[in-house]
Amino acid sequence: MSERSTRVLLAVLSILGLLMSAYLTWVHLAGVAPICLAGSGGCEAVQTSRYAEILGVPVAVLGIAGYAGLMLSAWLKGEGGVLLGLFVALVSVLFSGYLTWLELFVIHAICQWCVTSAILMMASFIFTAVRFGQSMS
Amino acid sequence: MIEQRSLRLLAIVVLSAIVVFALLVLLSQISGSEEEVQELLADVPQDGTMLGSEDAPVTIYLYEDLQCPACASFARRTFPHLVTRYVEPGEVKVVSEPLTIIGPDSTPATEAALSAGEQDLYWEYSTLFFLNQKRENSGYVTGEFLTSIAKETQGLDVGQWNEDREQGSFESEIEAAQNMAQDDGVGGTPTMVITGPQGTSKLVGAVPIDQVAAAIDEVEAP
């Protein structure tokens, strides 16, 4: 896989993540239940939990920041883009893991949107790691 | 040489990412914490399910179900502003009308909060419950869970609370709230019926403080 392909794939994942985070931010601010398959109970429980905000900032807004950072890294050529992407993806994948742990063991509810975001972040992390490897060789 | 530099950069990136992640986890754990709830309600008078001064000219009847996610959202995002802007200064009192419409777990949850109300700590207990709320009807409302909330409630005599919870009969209070809800045409939770010298207003859902403020303005004396 060429570095260009890796960057394009990273940009595509970022756009998907940005759209999803924007939707979840709107849901949070409008105080409505997110659309989820098989009912919105789990999604609503997660979205209205105390962990849905950090110091008053919706976690979905952090998602927007994360995906925007990944998009910027995909656009940037050279070492700056590689390192920025790796940094953002690593923070995001660790934080997604923490949020998934909260869903499973603290809130006892699963939000399909959050799981999808965690998968997108994991995929982004893999691509940023591949890009780092490509930049070393 | 190049490889060494790359590895050094990689180490910096990984370490920085771990630091930022740890900071996010820390902030996530401290925001909306139990301490904030106790602080918010510490100086506000309470009597059973009533919060605020009995002489307050405006009364908000808050229909809520402890299992309801929208009620938890209201408790976290709007309720603190309502307390500091209107209840603390004595302009408004809030009376909780607990409903048990979501499912079987709602009843023990309500009984536990009403037991705390016997010690005039209903609002601390119910707000802490909302902060720790989980998926509705998932069976999480166990004796152990309710007791953990009771232990977090500052000033609550947990032994007495447990005795009241096990022996107390709250059926009539729950039924009275249900009847009032029917009379007020409540179709879901949270619903606020706001009454004052100028009349009555109703708000449905986890509305922001601005909407509550507008409704209070509408019913209070000119």
Helicity of chain A, as a percent range: over 70%
Largest sheet of chain B: 6 strands, mixed
Question: Helical region count of chain A?
Answer: 5
Give the mean pLDDT of chain A. 90
Number of beta-strand segments of chain A: 2
Number of domains of chain A: 1
Rg value of chain A: 15 Å
| Spatial order of the strands forming the largest sheet of chain A | 1-2
Quaternary state reads: heterodimer
Describe the model.
The complex is a heterodimer of chains A (137) and B (222). With 137 residues, chain A is mainly alpha-helical. Chain A has one domain (3-136): VKOR domain (de novo design (two linked rop proteins), Up-down Bundle). Helices cover 78% and strands 3% of the residues of chain A. Chain A contains 5 helices and 2 strands. In chain A, strands 1-2 form a two-stranded antiparallel ribbon. In chain A, a hairpin with a 2-residue loop joins strand 1 (53-54) and strand 2 (57-58). In chain A, helix 4 runs antiparallel to helix 5. The longest helix of chain A has 30 residues, at 78-107. The mean pLDDT of chain A is 90. Chain B is α+β, with helices and mostly antiparallel strands. Chain B has a single domain (40-219), classed as 3-Layer(aba) Sandwich (Glutaredoxin). Chain B is 55% helix and 14% strand. Chain B has helices spanning 2-30, 34-41, 69-77, 79-87, 106-117, 122-131, 143-152, 158-167, 171-183, 209-219, and strands at 46-47, 50-51, 58-64, 92-98, 191-196, 199-204. The A-B interface holds A 31, 33, 41-42, 44-45, 47-51, 53-56, 62, 79, 83, 86-87, 90-91, 94-95, 98, 106-109, 132, 135-136 and B 2-3, 6, 9-10, 13-14, 16-18, 20-21, 24-25, 27-28, 31-32, 69-70, 72-73, 76, 131-136, 138, 140, 205-208.
